Amino acid sequence: MGVITWALCIILLDALLSSAQWAGLLLLKCSSCGGLAGVWAFGLVKWVFLHVLISALADRKHRALPHRFAALLCFIAPVFETGRVLTESPSEQYRGPSLDPIMLLLGAASSSLACLIWEKWLSRDGQMKKENLDTKRLLKRVLTYFKPDTVHLITAFGFLIMGVILFSGMRGGIFMVALARLNKRLKHLLFHNLLKQEVHFFEANNPG
């Protein structure tokens, strides 16, 4: 099977699996799909299924490209949903993946374009083969100099991850505090304005 045939088969299988997921969500009347973790879990299940299928049917020499394309196609939707959650307001609840077929076509087109650019210009078989190999050798050489400081690097990355988690929680907490203070301020203003009204205002309007 040629590369284009494999790509079309992978896109078709991904569309069938996604359609089955949408049908299940509609039947179960559950649009959230288990939240963001459920979206990533379904992408992982699709990738494992396609990876095993490609390994079983494709020749060993021609497995690398379909494997990369399948991984890109399966995980582009979870990455998109994660970016959408991060850009939304913390107070908004995640409503689940979009059930629009256009998003499925955009995912397939984006994955195909990204895979084409990678294989044509950025992969080992592209025009930048020598530059990529030199960069990898240089990176490996630099990493060998960091071996005595492995503990310090692990500690630094640990504090980096802890900082991201901590400041993400602080961001949500500060937003909630600001909203609570605004709500309290508006209630006080409403109460003071009601106290300043004349008696005929309460006769004309029901306070309850």
Summary, kept brief:
With 208 residues, the protein is mainly alpha-helical.
Describe the model:
This is ABC transmembrane type-1 domain-containing protein. InterPro entries: ABC1_TM_dom, ABC1_TM_sf. Keywords: Membrane, Signal, Transmembrane, Transmembrane helix. With 208 residues, the protein is mostly helical. Helix content is 79%, strand content 0%. It has seven helices and no strands. The chain has helices at 3-28, 35-57, 64-87, 101-122, 129-145, 150-195, 199-204. Helix 2 (35-57) packs antiparallel against helix 3 and helix 3 packs across helix 4. It starts with a helix and ends with a helix. 12% of the residues are buried.
Order of helices and strands: HHHHHHH
How many DSSP E strands?
0
Total helical elements = 7
Report the uncertain regions: none
- How many strands, what sense, and barrel or not for the largest sheet? none
| Rg (C-alpha, Å) | 27 Å
Proportion of residues in extended strands: under 5%
Helix content range: over 70%
C-alpha geometry:
flat
InterPro entries: ABC1_TM_dom, ABC1_TM_sf
Protein name: ABC transmembrane type-1 domain-containing protein
Organism: Xenoophorus captivus
Signal peptide: 1-20
Give me some keywords for this one.
208 residues; mainly alpha; 7 helices; 0% strand; ABC transmembrane type-1 domain-containing protein; transmembrane helix; ABC1_TM_sf
Task: Record the SSE blueprint.
Layout (H helix, E strand, L loop, with lengths): L2 H26 L6 H23 L6 H24 L13 H22 L6 H17 L4 H46 L3 H6 L4
